[in-house]
Structure formats: C-alpha cells, structure tokens
Predict the 3D structure of the following.
Amino acid sequence: MKRLLLIFFLLLTFTAFAQEGTFTIKGTIKGLNAPATVFLIYDGVINGKATLNNGWFEFSGRIDQTKEAYLTIDTKDTSYTYTNGTKFYVEDGNISINCPDSSLDKAIITGTENNNTEAKYKASLQTIETRDNQLETMDTSATEDQKRSPEFLKDLELKNKKLEAERREANRKFIIDNPSSIVSLDALYSSAMYSDYESIKMLYEQLTPEVKNSPQGLAYAQELEKMNTVAIGKIAPDFELLDTAYKSVTLSSLRGKYVLLDFWASWCPVCRESNPGVVKAYGQYKDKNFTVLSVSLDKQNDRKTWLNAIHHDGLTWTQVSDLRFWNSKVVALYHLTALPQNFLLDPNGKIIARDLDSDQLSTKLADLLDK
C-alpha cells in the first residue's frame, strides 16, 4: 500500500549535469480542452503555462543545464496544484509527454536520455505499483468489522511488508545497474524510506563521481548526513510536544525505560494496520520497563479525528502531536520521509532498532525483556 511521503519536491530546486541547450516539450492529455491549463515548473517557479488545444500542448526554451521539472494541470485554469502532476527532466532535446487521461501520474515521458532512463525506472516498478494499488483498494473498501479484525489487519501488514521488501530490492538493482544516471538518486530516495543509514550509504557509494558531484548528488549527501543523526547507535534527539490533555511531554522524560518512538497519523492506512501489533507489544511488556510514545503528524483541523483514531485503535499509551502535518518539528529532527516509522530506544535513549514491524518488535522485545 502506498506509504505517505514527503520527499517528492526536495529536488525540484536543484539542477543536474551541465548540459546547455534548447528543449521542446510536446504532449497530449486525452479528454481535456481549454480552459484546462498545464504548468511547467522548475527552479522552484512556473516557467511556462499552456492552455490545452484538443488535448495538445507545447513548450520550448533554452536551459543552461539539465533540470528536474514538474508538469501539473488545472482543468479550470484557476491555479496550479501539486496534487495532479508528474516529474521529469527538462534537458537539451525533444521531449514527448503523453497521458491517456487527466491523471498526469499516468504520463509516458520519453525522448531524452534522463527521461528515457526515468521511464525504464518506472517500468521496473510497474508490477509493484499495481499490487500497491490493489492493497490500497483492500484497505479503503474494508468494512468496519474488518478494520477491527486483528487477522485482517495482520494480513495487510504482512502483504505490505513483502511489497516494501520487493520495492527495496528493485531500487537496489536499478541503482547497481545505473550508477552513472541521476535517476538512481530517485531510487535512493525511495529506498531510504525504510532502510538504515549504512545500507543507503553503501548504495550511494556505488554511484559514479559525476553523479555524486552533481548538485543533486551533493544535495543527497547532505540528506545522508541528516539520516546519520538518527542512525542505529545514535542518541535519539529530544523534543517536547503536547499530549491529548495539552500537557507537555519530552522524550527525555522517558529515560530509564525501553521506548518505542512511533510516528503515525490517523490518515495513514498503513499506520492504522500496524497499530494492533503495537497494542499487543505494549500490553505484554508495559510492566517490564517498556513503553510507547506515539507522535502524530495529523493536521490542526483534524484534532478530533486524531483523538477518535486513538480511541478506535485502543492506543492507551502517551500520544503527542503539534498537529502541524509535515511541518511538525519532528519531521526534520528525525528525517521523516514517510509514515509509519518507528525507533526503538534503550533506557539511555540510544537508538537500537528502527522501522520494526509487529513481528520484529515482538521478537526484539522478547530478546530484551523476557529474561
């Protein structure tokens, strides 16, 4: 099932390899006409705007180097939005963008080196994405009884776990096979969501010097350094947030216990599927020097939804949030790029494991506390 991410636009303001030249973008979006408008965005600003003519649009211009770009559409020409768009590379040459309907995430983009490689990367994940969509449908169409069924949620969790393992392997293979392509940085971002620092650093080192020294590669090196601050063996950064009763809670106040620091949100289906496993672990080990601190990335206007989810899922341990969604201060502090994510801390606050599923959490706690 799709993990909810905050990584897509990190690279939009960065450029890639030096390659001065001219570009032409020709495309079609079936089923749309004026006043529907497409927007071409790179360098963090709108660089082009075209009203569709029987589904047809075109852009052209000069660039000083290859740039990551974003094409988005507004069907009424009122404003642009990132909710319906697709990423590609503006670079020297002729670029073709063809979409079978108004959903730009289905666009086929070809014609230049990086866009052809990006198309190859997407194709390598196509089967995984199809199964991902099927899992999402299973979740969204679940009955209330199914949502309360530990067996149903466990099945979804295991299927998600298997899918994520296949996604990591597909990304790893793509990076190894394409070390000289900046598209491999996309695969690295995807891999990093549920991988430890050391494994991602090893993959990064497989890239060619040209890729690593590109603006994007240098930017990724900075991201790696941020990942290292919350790597296994590091002391978990302290923070202070309000609980459901508006009382201040600090992470450091839990020193002396093993702590599962659990990042989630009421709107995250995979988080909700994972909650029964955390409930079980808490019930089994809460009297053995173990506790949980859950941090929600819910929105300011969704406080009631957050509280209802806590009650519905039976989360009886401490819950905190600043209700600032991806703008929460913990996002940068823990380099969160997706949900759910968790960190297991020892009594000294040191990170000893991360991103544990329910089975892994149970096994780890048994090793630590069943003595």
Observations:
- Residues 2-15 have pLDDT under 50 and may be disordered.
- The chain has three domains: 4-110, 126-228, 240-369.
